[in-house]
Amino acid sequence: MALSVKVVKRLASLMIVVIASYAGGLLLTELENGTLNIWPKDLFEDTMRQLAEVDPATHAILSDHMEEARAIIEAADETQDWDASRKTIVAMVEKYSAPALSGTNDAIVIVVAEKALNLVEVLSVHYQEGCVRFMEGSISTPDFSISQVGKAYKIYSEALRIAYIDGKSNKLGEKLPIEQLGPILKERLGLTENDASALQDPNGSEPRQLCDALKKFFNVKLVPPSQQGPYARTIIAGG
To answer: CB under 8 Å to 152, separation ≥6 — which residues?
Structure first.
């Protein structure tokens, strides 16, 4: 049975969403526990400095659109509605990153998929609930208290940053049409109906099952060589 279009489209947008998710979670958590000093420092500059340390991809995208990003953070500071701010940042990052990532060359975008696989493998061992958070785009400060998770996430985000920068100056690259994705997901990567269900409903699945499904999904090395670049580009930049 071919996997549904819904699964493919949801996972296609996953990478774009997750890179933005940390900003709101970082601010909210540190404000709650009193570790973020917003006076006399500039809140936006503080946020950007911390993002540069933990999430280089989001930092790079926000840096390209500083006025828009600053307006979001300053509005959140005024309203204290950090969840709304996070969602706005997610939408902003998706808006600007998708076109760029669609132009990333094959070799670089394949590395992003490989680093995503490495991150999921780390989560599978050290923090299985993180696979659910990863799918939801809600990895935040407490998750990074696990050093292995923080390290793997930064490596993944750095690969994504490189892909974003590379793609900005390139034309759109080849992606796989849905009729080619189905057979690859099922026959090459071995995703089952249970895996598809876990990917469609992360909160309704066991974290271990979701981690296992994600490990299959990102295993780009099992894709035929001629299709590895288009497959990686499809799941990283969106179908």
So the answer is: 115, 118, 119, 122, 123
In angstroms, rounded to a whole number, what is the distance separating the alpha carbons of residues 230 and 110? Answer: 9
Instruction: Report the 3 state secondary structure along 102-149.
Output: CCCCHHHHHHHHHHHHHHHHHHHHHCCHHHHHHHHCCCCHHHHHCHHH
CA dist., res. 176 & res. 131, Å (int): 25
Task: Name the DSSP letter for residue 65.
Answer: T
- Name the nearest CA neighbour of 56 among 93, 84, 31: 93
Q: What is the DSSP letter of 171?
A: P
State the pLDDT at residue 41.
Answer: 61
Looking at beta carbons, which pairs linking 91-96 to residues 24 or more positions away fall under 8 Å?
Answer: 92/20, 92/61, 92/62, 92/65, 92/68, 93/16, 93/17, 93/19, 93/20, 93/58, 93/61, 93/62, 94/13, 94/16, 94/17, 94/20, 96/61, 96/64, 96/65
Distance in angstroms (rounded) separating the CA atoms of residues 106 and 25: 32
Q: String of b and e for 20-54 (b: at least 16 CB within 10 Å)? A: bbbbbbbbbbbbeeeebeeeeeebbebbbebbeeb
* CA 238 – CA 94 distance, rounded (Å): 10
pLDDT in tens, 138-174: 565 556 678 899 899 999 999 999 999 999 989 889 9
Reported pTM: 0.80
Window from 78-82, 95-99, 203-207 with minimum mean pLDDT: 78-82
